[in-house]
Amino acid sequence: MFFSKKSGYHALVLYIHHDHPQPLLVVMPSDVAGDVLSTLKKFEKSSLNTETYIGSLGPFAIIHEIRSFEKIAIHNDGLPWSEPMLYTDFAKKISDRLQEFMDDVPSDIEEELVYFVGEFTMMQDNGFVAPF
């Protein structure tokens, strides 16, 4: 699996609205699930959750949360969206996209952009896990 910890895992199924809509499975350890879900719920409602700002990852909607599982079995790995994405990788992709707008940010979204760049940077650095 993805993690070395012996705890369970959580997953969020995101529905990405595009010309070819598809689901995306984002997987995380149970101990960070609350923080990740909270951040993604805030971002889901944000004006930044658009294709303009996050590219092919947006806009997305959280459609399902899967709790406390120990492994994922993929039965059709030919589908491009069948492989789960680790939450840190998902956060890095969004953070990288948002940082492209930091130098030339419209004033009406500046505060929101800075907030989410910080949140997704912390998420990608695994900052939701206590260092002890």
Task: Please render the helix and strand layout as text.
Elements: E1 9-16, E2 22-29, H1 33-45, H2 51-54, E3 60-69, E4 85-86, H3 87-99, H4 110-124
Parallel strand pairs: 2-4
Antiparallel strand pairs: 1-2, 1-3
Helix pairs in contact: 3-4
**Taking strands numbered 1, 2, ... along the chain, how are they ordered across the largest sheet?**
3-1-2-4
Poorly predicted regions are none
Shape: globular
H/E series? EEHHEEHH
* Number of helical stretches of at least 4 residues: 4
Rounded to the nearest angstrom, the radius of gyration is 15 Å
The helix-and-strand class reads alpha+beta
- The separation of the N and C termini measures 23 Å
Helical fraction:
25-40%
Q: Report the β-strand fraction as a percent range.
A: 15-25%
Number of strands: 4
How can the largest sheet be summarized? 4 strands, mixed
The overall pLDDT average reads 87
